[in-house]
Amino acid sequence: SSTMSLSEAEVQSARGAWEKIYVDAEDNGTAVLVRMFTEHPDTKSYFTHFKGMDSAEEMRQSDQVRGHGKKVFSAINDMVQHLDNSEAFLGIVTPLGKKHATQLKIDPKNFRIICDIILQLMEEKFGGDCKASFEKVTNEICTHLNNIYKEEGW
Q1: DSSP per residue over 17-35, as a string?
Q2: In this structure, are residues 134 and 11 in contact, taking their beta carbons and an 8 Å threshold?
Q3: Of 14, 23, 141, 145, which sits most exposed with the smallest number of CB within 10 A?
Q4: Burial classification of residue 130, based on how many CB atoms lie within 10 Å of its CB (0-12 exposed, 13-18 middle, 19 or more buried)
Q5: 5/139 Cα distance (integer angstroms)
């Protein structure tokens, strides 16, 4: 029994869409974070290393930003590989959500922000179909993360 609301066909097309952007995980992950920090500067406050960085260029070249961009993309990649196995999917999402809720105390609205930027980037690089086929996945990820936050008392 699956808690996932994605059909097998949707899982396959989402994986195809994700593969396109994941090929350049570090560059695309960095681009997503730089855009988030630039358009939503308050999100920088969670990252002690990035706080003082104002220029997008400086962020783009930062090893810390690049490292975290890659980390975010790797985590999503693990989720995408397990979209058809909700137990495995939740095994990845749950500890990640708990850590961000309890240790890092990241406002959960930031997950939606980062997912929306990933969708924007997909659309810019690969077109609307690519974005459309990944949209349900981002909703799934954000829904589960929000549920974990609620369990943690947010």
Answers
A1: HHHHHHTTHHHHHHHHHHH
A2: no
A3: 23
A4: buried
A5: 10
The pLDDT of residue 1: 33
Contacts of 52 (CB under 8 A, 6+ apart): none
The CA-atom distances, in angstroms, between 121 and each of 11, 103, 131, 139, 144 are 20, 29, 8, 16, 23
38: containing domain: 8-152
Position 136 in a domain = yes
Total residue count of the chain as it appears in this document? 154
Contact in structure between 16 and 98 (CB atoms under 8 Å): no
- The CATH code of the domain that includes 127 is 1.10.490.10
CA distance linking residue 147 with residue 1, whole number of Å: 19
pLDDT mean for each 10 residues of the chain (154 residues): 76 98 98 96 88 89 95 97 94 96 94 98 98 96 96 94
Q: What is the C-alpha separation between 154 and 151, in angstroms, rounded?
A: 7
Q: Is 119 helix (H, G, I), strand (E, B) or coil?
A: helix
d(CA 18, CA 93): 17
Terminal Cα-to-Cα distance of the chain (whole angstroms) = 28
